[in-house]
């Protein structure tokens, strides 16, 4: 039976929108022992300070010396509904043995939820979460991608992004939220192919709405000094997606929010919670890995 039967696509007004977002991982010295071959401990399905910290060990890759991944010290938590928590746990248990410690790379447009959904997937798999944009900021020593574009250039950012992905590709048991443009360089695919790649495919209207809600200051490719933020973001996202669509389609699995909403009887993707999307991503991962194993045998 499809494990997602019974999953509720809860309207955000009563769930996601009313909740605190999970805090991001950040880096300042070391990475967790989970990057080694240790098996994941069973942990409660709560993100934030309710999650026990994993023990820390020095990272091996030269580039990440001096960096560390650590849970926020804040008090915010993300609660899943009982249904979602159970399904997330079951799906994670199904996927883990097939994943064989490989990393998971989330690709997709800006605002597609790679960070939000990636943190949930990392949590349930007992993996560590990395955001490649944040790693580039750390490596360059500038605290925002927008400033890196301004002070240096987009090409400089892209070179550093490739180096970050190369270094991550030698590690295990990570969920990585990649930058929206990471897919455009073939070399980045050679790194990401060492793990599993998942495309979060979100309709442009939903992307533009999400981005307009928080502003474009942190997204240099969308930033405009004036004008209607939604309309400008929508136009720019449309042009970017046209150029990148084929590259995103290289991913091992695609989570189409339109399809997920349809599956749950909705015609609006905005009702889908991040955890419902994370469940779909785990289902897609399982299908891909199972098919791959069948082809091999
Ligand atoms: N399922 C969802 N429903 C509504 N809003 C969401 C959902 N998932 C993420 N968001 C919101 O959309 C915005 C972008 O999400 P997020 O930062 O996770 O995307 P991203 O793909 O990592 O973006 P970027 O590549 O620009 O860093 C955030 O404000 C987040 O709170
Ligand atoms: O879509 C893009 O090209 C980008 C997305 C962000 O994640 C950042 O990597 C940067 O703003 C570029």
From TrEMBL:
One of its GO terms (molecular function) is shikimate kinase activity. This is shikimate kinase. InterPro entries: P-loop_NTPase (IPR027417), Shikimate/glucono_kinase (IPR031322), Shikimate_kinase/TSH1 (IPR000623), Shikimate_kinase_CS (IPR023000). The gene is LOC100846674. It catalyses: shikimate + ATP = 3-phosphoshikimate + ADP + H(+). Pfam families: SKI (PF01202). GO terms for cellular component: chloroplast. The lineage of its organism: Eukaryota, Viridiplantae, Streptophyta, Embryophyta, Tracheophyta. Its EC number is 2.7.1.71. Its main location: plastid. CDD domains: SK. It comes from Brachypodium distachyon (Purple false brome). It is found in: Plastid, Chloroplast. Pathway: Metabolic intermediate biosynthesis; chorismate biosynthesis; chorismate from D-erythrose 4-phosphate and phosphoenolpyruvate: step 5/7.
